[in-house]
Amino acid sequence: MTEPLPAGATIGILGGGQLGRMLSVAAGRLGYRTHVFDPAADGPAAQLAHRATTAAYDDTAALEAFAARVDVVTFEFENVPATALEVVAGQRPIRPGPRALEISQDRLAEKRFLAGLGLATAPFAPVDGPGDIAAALGQVGAPALLKTRRFGYDGKGQARIEAAADSEAAWSAIGAAPAIAEALLDFRFEASVIAARGLTGEVVCYDPGRNEHADGILRRSTVPAPLDTARRTDAALLAGKVLNALDYVGVMGIELFVTAQGLVVNEIAPRVHNSGHWTQQGCAVDQFEQHVRAIAGWPLGDGTRHCDVEMENLVGTDIDRLPEIARDPAAAIHLYGKAEARPGRKMGHVNRIRAR
Amino acid sequence: MTEPLPAGATIGILGGGQLGRMLSVAAGRLGYRTHVFDPAADGPAAQLAHRATTAAYDDTAALEAFAARVDVVTFEFENVPATALEVVAGQRPIRPGPRALEISQDRLAEKRFLAGLGLATAPFAPVDGPGDIAAALGQVGAPALLKTRRFGYDGKGQARIEAAADSEAAWSAIGAAPAIAEALLDFRFEASVIAARGLTGEVVCYDPGRNEHADGILRRSTVPAPLDTARRTDAALLAGKVLNALDYVGVMGIELFVTAQGLVVNEIAPRVHNSGHWTQQGCAVDQFEQHVRAIAGWPLGDGTRHCDVEMENLVGTDIDRLPEIARDPAAAIHLYGKAEARPGRKMGHVNRIRAR
User: Fold this and answer.
1) Is the Cβ–Cβ distance between B23 and B73 less than 8 Å?
2) Which DSSP category does B140 fall into?
3) Could you report the per-residue pLDDT of A90-127, keeping only the tens digit for each?
């Protein structure tokens, strides 16, 4: 058994958004310091970190100086360039390891990885140009979704294709980049499971939540999701399979479609996840602390949920409802310190505590 | 109705210990920045604040520069010198106002203030020298406690007097400083109520907790305290009376003795309070956020407790039990980032979530 990271050690965080902010607070709660690396100055995480580096991900000297000042490195978003990780990995442990990031950065690799584990995914086919789309639709059925392999998030880089005639339009809509065609599933609802794996291999899952999206952005997660015991067990088992296969260390968000035939894995996010914010009010150890525990070599929290929670994202002008939300006795408010409420921008979230 | 402090504004905090640290995190959660002023560098609060000034409380230039950079000022411990507050008050609002601080800095003024409100206190008498002790014992009874009027905390500056013959010894034990003699009460247990008053005068109380001390230091708060409805109402009413009388803005901790005759007020602390740490796991809005809400002009949270909590302070070498505590599924751990575990030093606390 490895010794945990000593008190006062510094955790490096690649990425400076709200997930990094909440990781930084959780690290502080366990007696650690954080150092945030992000191309933008004074972002949500830098505001609550002990130290911040503002530099581009291709600034090797800045990355090396960052790595030299920290004890272990993690990341808060999956589009950190692999080259940046390579620089850091030469000096410090990166948890989770780069393999989970590589897989989650490429939808095709991700689907093949999941299918290779025997997990259900939506039928998919690679699309390297508009000419591939007709054949892909033949394979996965129509209508389908065309999704870029890389750099998609919050519904960006996606287009719906009704028929092969839409090929050119869909291809240009997603920015003419390598893609996959993915079958549109008939699902009852979307869910996610937040799971963690510790440095010594133990796996812990939080209760799955039901997710609602609008314009491709998560709006609400309700926990517990309306799943029977068998499905809840399925969720935990598939999460364990994914984490073990990757020799993963840290928290992962796994998005699921709940269908009549069972759980279908939509995608994996090798980081703390928006749909896990409810754990801040629902559990003794939330997902942010769980991630810090994992990468710092602590025993994991057991994930017990002590109340029901409904998490609502405050997106764009949702923030104007703050005075009303602040008067709701059940509402725990979490704001991200972003100055300007642009459309689609996540400004904060609210966890509403519900009766058990 | 005043407008709340705008998002991105900076809250100045006088004092840089663990209370300031947790206030800073709560301020960040509501979208504010913090600037900590403390004579010691890199203390618990400075580690999680946006900015820190390291300077003495009599450094007028540093206090003025601090005030110039913040929008509102609060304090996290009651021994901030009045002169420091005067400097700051010339430039920025201080919440709560200096009057509560003045009263709580002087045990005699505090007792007279409480008695003046018609609240029950332990019988007390001023002691300005060892020659006053015999008469004071005649007034309050023996045995009694001799307590310095100023700068007492965590049981420091106190001595027990069995009889007038102990006068000289007790006087020198407390450091030969102006004091009060206070009757030793026969109480069932100690309790406290954490209350808040908003900028517009509304008062909110959390459920009282039962407190256990060792060596003058709080070790454990258990919520709810075993009080009947009438006593819980008494606690809320007396808290409201104290807060209103001071035109108070912010959170206050009020320590009580629970006696067969009812609640007796021990002392008031014009700040967030160690015995209110349980609210971090028990309520949607914890005492730290409540304080920030009050001083920033937000509506207060309503204090609803959604689970039972037992708070244990980790004092000195208690921190060595951390590996075991980290394995308790009900334990939410809060560490203060202090490097060295000296005897009597508060290193952190644990909130254990109990069944409702």
Assistant:
1) no
2) H
3) 999 999 998 999 999 999 999 999 999 999 999 999 99
- The pair of structure tokens assigned to A319 is 């923030």
B41 CB near a chain A CB, below 8 Å? no
pLDDT band at A76 (very low <50, low <70, confident <90, very high): very high
Phi, psi (degrees; rounded to nearest 5) at A262:
130, -165
| Mean pLDDT, rounded, for A200-210 | 97
Q: Find tokens 């106002």 and name the residue.
A: B97
Residue (of B143, B135, B250, B267) closest to B197 by Cα position:
B250
Using the Cβ of B296 and the Cβ atoms of chain A, whether some distance falls under 8 Å is answered with no
Checking DSSP bridges between strand B124-127 and strand B51-54, what pairing results, if any?
unpaired
Q: Which residues of B53-81 are buried (b: 16+ CB within 10 A; e: fewer)?
A: bbbebebeebbeebbeebbbbbbbbbebe
How far is it, in rounded angstroms, from Cα B302 to Cα A8?
Answer: 36
Geometric angle at alpha carbon A35, from A31 and A37, rounded to 5°: 155
Q: Which residues of A touch B33 (CB under 8 A)?
A: 47, 337
In this structure, how many other beta carbons lie within 10 angstroms of the beta carbon of residue A12? 27
Per-residue pLDDT at B124: 97
Report residue B222 CA to chain centroid gap. 17
pTM of this structure? 0.94
Q: What string of DSSP letters covers A65-107?
A: HHHHH-SEEEESSTTS-HHHHHHHHTTS-BSS-HHHHHHHH-H
Angle between helices B18-29 and A18-29 (to 10 degrees): 160
Chain A residues within an 8 Å CB radius of B50: 47-48
Tell me the pLDDT band of A1, cut-offs 50, 70 and 90: very low
Q: How confident is the model at residue A356 (pLDDT cuts 50, 70, 90)?
A: low
Interface A:B, Cβ pairs < 8 A: 98
**Helices within chain A (DSSP H only):** 18-29, 44-47, 60-69, 82-89, 98-105, 107-116, 133-140, 167-173, 229-245, 279-282, 287-296, 322-326
**Which amino acid appears at position A87 of this protein?**
V
Q: How far is CA A115 from CA A203, B145, B339, in A?
A: 21, 74, 48
- So what's the pLDDT on residue A208? 98
Distances (CA, A) of B284 to A287, A333, B121: 17, 8, 33
Cβ of residue A325 closer than 8 Å to a chain B Cβ: no
pLDDT tens-digit series, residues B79-94: 899 899 999 999 999 9
Q: Is the peptide bond before A96 cis (omega within 30 degrees of 0)?
A: yes
pLDDT at B275: 98
Q: Which tens digits make up the pLDDT trace of B288-297?
A: 999 999 999 9
Q: Which of B132, B134, B135, B108 is nearest to B122 (CA)?
A: B108
Compute the average pLDDT of residues A202-216: 95
Written as one letter, the residue type at B155 is G
Q: Which residues contact B275 (CB under 8 A, 6 or more apart)?
A: B192, B194, B209, B211, B218, B221, B253, B255, B311
Residue B1 has pLDDT above 60, yes or no: no
pLDDT over 70 at A337, yes or no: yes
> Starting at the edge strand that comes first in sequence, how are the strands of the sheet with A33-38 ordered?
A51-54, A33-38, A10-14, A72-75
B31/A348 touch (CB, cutoff 8 Å), yes or no: yes
Taking the CA of residue A70 and the nearest CA in chain B, the distance in Å comes to 15
